[in-house]
Amino acid sequence: MSEIYDIGYRHYDGPRLGRGHSTRALAVHSLRGVFGLGRPARSKIVPFALVGIMFIPSIVSIAIMALAQQRGIPYSGFAVVMQAVVAIFLAAQAPAVVAPDLRYRVLPLYLSRPVSIAEYVGAKVTAMTVAVFALIAGPLTLAYVGELVVDMPGPPATGEYLGAMLMALVLSLLLSAFGLALASFTPRRGLGVASVITVYLLSSASVPVIYATFAETGNVETAKWAWLANPFWLVDSVQHWLFGTPPHSIEGDYPSGPVSALLLVVLLAVAMLALALRYRKAAAR
Amino acid sequence: MHILATEGLTKRFPTVTAVDQLTVTVGPGVTGLVGANGAGKSTLIKILLGLLPPSGGSARVLDLDVTARGADIRRLVGYMPEHECLPPDVSATELIVHFARMSGLPRTAARERAADVLRHVGLAEERYRPVGTYSTGMKQRVKLAQALVHDPKLIFLDEPTNGLDPRGRDEMLTLIRRIGAEFGISVLVTSHLLGELERICDHVIVIDAGRLLRSSAIGEFTQVTQTVEVEVDEGLDDLAAHLVAGGQAVSRQGRLLVVKVTGPESYDAIRDATAELGLCLIRLEQGRHRIEDVFRDEVAHV
What we know:
The complex is a heterodimer. By secondary structure, chain A is mainly alpha-helical. Chain A is built from eleven helices and no strands. In chain A, helix 2 runs antiparallel to helix 4. Chain B is built from eleven helices and 14 strands. Chain B is globular, with a radius of gyration of 22 Å. By secondary structure, chain B is α/β, with parallel strands linked by helices. Chain B has two domains: 4-222, 3-Layer(aba) Sandwich (Rossmann fold); 227-286, Alpha-Beta Plaits. The model of chain B has no long low-confidence stretch (mean pLDDT 88). At the A-B interface, helix 1 and helix 5 of A face helix 2, strand 6, helix 3 and helix 4 of B. Chain A: The chain crosses the membrane at residues 45-67, 73-99, 120-141, 161-183, 190-214, 259-279. Chain A: Keywords: Membrane, Transmembrane, Transmembrane helix. Chain A: This is ABC-2 type transport system permease protein.
């Protein structure tokens, strides 16, 4: 081993930046963790494989546009069509953001620094939201750029693309808040993955069950509410209301838009409250 | 100048009073906080970090009030928890750089400080390996490094020698002494062993059940309770009788004889006694004071 000259202890008298800097640094650190950057190679396999899968429809869309002059998956329906991949990404990576700090009790090291627990949770939610948003927005943007390059007949669907991007952000925030809340209640990583995917499957599976139950008894109007049990269709119904895009439910229409939007806001608030309560308890330990 | 000062500090939980009317001041240098498990050491540190509001009384750290200026205190102090607190899948370098940035250091400065501080705690090439592959001793060093990386004015070390083997314990204690003496950073270090703090502390505070038992400079402690432990191959009873006859205060602890040191003549008496009896002397060691000794003395004083 090479000899290192002992030059003694040096004090640090450079700048000490504020809490905003620390919170941003934590968000970036967590975002890197979602994609396994700075971690062993095996941590990168799942996130990057899922990102790859998300890009396949966009590439197919561009090919269809170039060869057949027809559109593939509409921008507004991309998230709904790809929901299983997005859900797996959320389930696989949300525990990586919150679980280690709880399971290995790293949280006290953060709390003994200037950042508050609210800033800590905010940074984590931001990191996960940006990750899910990137997962959806990346392929959307590639398809849009493809559309511009291919030069389809008629004006480009810029409005639909921008609407889809905004709704992707809303969807990412909703999914992240819920995913992190669930993962924070089950700090063992495997359990976290299982709990997020279970909740997604339940929410998806309940849709046809509820729908069929009401449709059978002749309450077709009531049956429409079933769509809102799944977060992807919930956000799609808000998009339908806001931008007038066609509904991407499997059959039929969504119920009234404002109620969907309200429900979305309530669900977001519930997830944030759950996170706040969970971390208030964790901080007190 | 006081590094920290408490005034009638009290913390009550629903079932226990963890800190009870504690009034104490700590100056620069290395200060030991001694108490049995559950004596309120960790609770006191959490209050001093501004993480736990006191139920009564007040406390100031670096002349900042703990309830009003918690965030400012945490910018200037470092904290090494008692429990394991390291994620296993990141390298020590990555972790320490991250925590430097969490303390407000810009990116480049964080890298430099992390490299510096990891060298000071004695982590070499292994700092690029995931922390999960480390031994307990190495993990303790990483925990110490994260407390030091932002060059704090004061660090709280909660049971830093916990779980270490005797050699690791010695190295950790030497390191703590260096932090106080060479680095110029004040240290508050907790332990349930008074003996190990004796070597490195300038001042020792003893608490029990959240109450102050004693706060004094280390010299006063050692004068009161200095003993020497003697171990011989056989003939322990003969030696004890011989020493008692010579006027020494002797007590027996298992296979050891504990002799109270009244001056240099006590050592001479032990040497002469073993030589005269022709015993095989195995060990002659400075007595380790356990917390119980202090408690016994305090009770005796009352």
